[in-house]
Design a protein that fits this description.
Length: about 500
C-alpha cells in the first residue's frame, strides 16, 4: 500500500487560484485569435473611419479583459490526499479530479513574459489524453516555485509514495530532487550554433510571401510583381544595365541570398528552440529542458517509450551527427508523440540514452535485408505521365515546363537512392528499419510494442509481386505506423507470421 503523498499536508487548505499574472499571459493567447480584428482595423484605418477603429479597439480590450477576469474568477485547483481537483467553467461548472497515480507527465512551460514575472504554465497528462487533442489538466499561470513543488509532489508519489518533508514555507524536499538527477546529454552554445547551420530552412520565405500577398497591395510593396522592380530600378541606371547585360549575376546573387537566408533561418530557429538543451535521468523518466525565449521542462516516462527514431542526412552523416527521437505515448509541448531527446549528437552519445529506454543501437554484425527494386520502379511509373506532359508542353515552346521535368527527374533519382539504402532486420527482440536518402532514418522498434501487423498491396504492387508490411505502434499523433515497403509477397507474409509467433 502506498504511503500518503506529501499533498496530504495541503489537503485541508482552501482551493488556490491562478497567479494574477494570468491576465498578462492570457493576453498573448487571446491575440492568437485576433486576426479578424486586425483585418477590420486595417480596413477602418485605410478608409479613414477613425471613430469606428477606436470603438472597436476599446471594445476588444474590454471584452478580452472581462473574459480573462471571469475565467480567472471561476478557475481553482487544490491538492487532495489522492490527487488534484480542478474546478472551472463560466456557465456550466466542470469538476475534474486527477489521481496522482494516473498522472504520467507534468510539463512546465515558460514564455518570455512568464520568465520575467516568475510564473509557469503546467500541463498534467494521463494516459487518457495520449491520443486526444487536449490535455487532462492545464494550470495556465501559477508561481514557478509552486509549479516545481507540484511536480515534486507527484514524482515523490510515483517514486514509491515516500513522504517528503514540507518546510515552513511549504517547499517540498523531494527525494527525486534535481541534485540527484543523472545528466545524459547537453548542448553547449557552440554546438547549438553548429546544429543551426545544418538545419537549413526556407520557412522564412513562406512567411514573407504570405505577408506580401496579404499586405502588398495595401502598402504598395510586392516584390512578386514585375512593376515593383521596374519602379525600384530606373531603366537607365548602371545597376539595371549591368543586370540586363549579365543576367547570370542576378542568378548567382539570388542563389547566394537563398543560401544565406536559409542558413540564418535555421540558426535562429535552432537557437530559439534548443538553447541550453539538457537531458537528465530522473527517478521516473527523462527530463528535457530547452528554449531561449520559451523555456520548456518536460518529463518523458521511459516506460511509455514505444520506439526510437535516429535521424541524419547525407551531409550530417559524414561528420557523424545524428538526432534521436523517442516515440512515446505522451505528447511534448508541440502536442507530438515523438520527443526529441538529442537534436545533434554523435552515436556514442545516443547509445546511453537508448539504454535508459531499454533499447540499443544495431549490432555491427546485424544481418540487414534489402527490399525489392519495385520500391523505385513503382514510384517512377507514377511519375512517368507527368514527365511526358511537361516534355510535351516544353516541345511546343513553353520552355519553363522543363523546370517541372527537372524536378520530377530529381524526385525519381532520389527514390532510387533511397531504395539503395533501404534495409530491414529482425533480431528476435526488435524490428530495425533503415530508410531514406536525404532524410535518413533508423527506426528501433521493440517487438513487444507492436500493436498490429498489416500486409497491404495495391494493383501496381500485385503486378510487381510485392507487398508492404505495416507495424502499428501506439504513440505519435494518436497512433503511428512504421513500414517495410516492397517486399516480395511471400517474404512479407513470412515476416508477419514470424513476428506473430514471437508475440505468443
Amino acid at each position: 500500500m502506498k504511503a500518503t503523498p506529501p499533498a496530504a499536508a495541503d489537503a485541508a487548505e482552501p482551493p488556490e487560484r491562478l497567479h494574477p499574472a494570468y491576465f498578462l499571459t492570457g493576453l498573448g493567447q487571446a491575440a492568437k485569435g485576433s486576426f479578424g480584428v486586425l483585418a477590420a482595423g486595417a480596413y477602418f484605418s485605410l478608409s479613414g473611419r477613425w471613430l469606428l477603429l477606436g470603438l472597436m479597439v476599446v471594445a476588444y480590450i474590454v471584452i478580452t479583459l472581462v473574459g480573462l477576469w471571469l475565467r480567472w474568477l471561476r478557475f481553482s485547483y487544490r491538492l487532495s490526499d489522492e490527487g488534484i481537483v480542478i474546478e472551472s467553467g463560466l456557465i456550466s461548472t466542470q469538476h475534474r479530479s486527477i489521481p496522482f497515480a494516473r498522472i504520467q507527465d507534468v510539463n512546465i512551460e515558460q514564455g518570455p513574459i512568464a520568465r520575467l514575472i516568475g510564473v509557469a504554465r503546467v500541463k498534467l497528462e494521463t494516459g487518457a489524453s495520449a491520443g486526444k487533442g487536449g490535455d487532462d489538466g492545464v494550470l495556465e499561470a501559477i508561481g514557478l516555485d509552486r509549479a516545481n513543488r507540484l511536480r515534486d509532489t507527484i514524482r515523490a508519489y510515483r517514486g514509491g509514495g515516500a513522504i517528503a518533508a514540507v518546510g515552513a514555507d511549504g517547499a517540498v524536499a523531494s527525494p527525486t530532487s534535481e541534485a540527484g538527477d543523472q545528466s545524459l546529454f547537453a548542448m553547449a552554445p557552440a554546438r547549438v550554433l553548429r546544429s543551426g547551420v545544418y538545419n537549413f530552412s526556407l520557412a522564412i520565405f513562406a512567411a514573407i510571401g504570405g505577408l506580401f500577398q496579404f499586405g502588398g497591395d495595401m502598402f504598395g510593396i510586392d516584390p512578386f510583381k514585375r512593376l515593383f522592380w521596374n519602379q525600384l530600378l530606373d531603366a537607365g541606371s548602371p545597376l539595371a544595365q549591368l543586370i540586363l547585360s549579365h543576367r547570370w549575376i542576378s542568378a548567382v546573387a539570388g542563389l547566394l541570398t537563398l543560401i544565406a537566408v536559409g542558413v540564418a533561418t535555421g540558426v535562429v530557429t535552432t537557437i530559439l528552440r534548443d538553447w541550453n538543451f539538457r537531458l537528465t535521468r530522473t527517478e521516473t523518466g527523462l527530463r528535457r529542458q530547452r528554449g531561449l525565449l520559451t523555456l520548456t521542462d518536460v518529463i518523458i516516462p521511459v516506460r511509455r517509450v514505444q520506439a526510437a527514431i535516429i535521424g541524419t542526412g547525407p551531409i550530417r552523416a559524414r561528420s557523424g551527427w545524428h538526432s534521436l527521437k523517442l516515440q512515446s505515448l505522451a505528447r511534448d509541448e508541440a502536442r507530438q508523440g515523438d520527443h526529441e531527446v538529442a537534436p545533434f549528437a554523435q552515436l556514442d552519445e545516443i547509445a546511453p540514452i537508448l539504454a535508459e529506454a531499454g533499447m540499443a543501437l544495431p549490432a555491427p554484425d546485424t544481418r540487414w535485408l534489402r527490399i525489392d527494386s519495385a520500391y523505385a520502379i513503382e514510384f517512377s511509373c507514377w511519375l512517368a505521365l507527368p514527365i511526358a506532359i511537361t516534355l510535351t508542353v516544353a516541345a511546343v515552346g513553353v520552355w519553363p515546363a522543363l523546370i517541372g521535368t527537372g524536378a520530377l527527374a530529381i524526385a525519381i533519382a532520389g527514390r532510387w537512392l533511397a531504395w539503395r539504402r533501404y534495409r530491414y532486420a529482425s533480431d528476435g527482440e526488435r524490428v530495425l528499419i533503415r530508410r531514406g536518402f536525404w532524410r535518413q532514418r533508423l527506426i528501433v522498434l521493440p517487438i513487444g510494442n507492436i500493436q498490429s501487423i498489416d500486409v497491404a498491396r495495391n494493383f501496381v504492387d500485385r503486378a510487381l509481386g510485392v507487398s508492404s508490411v505495416t507495424f502499428g505502434v501506439a504513440g505519435g499523433s494518436g497512433f503511428a505506423t512504421h513500414e517495410v515497403a516492397a517486399l516480395p509477397s511471400a517474404k512479407a507474409y513470412a515476416l508477419r507470421e514470424d513476428l506473430l509467433q514471437r508475440f505468443a
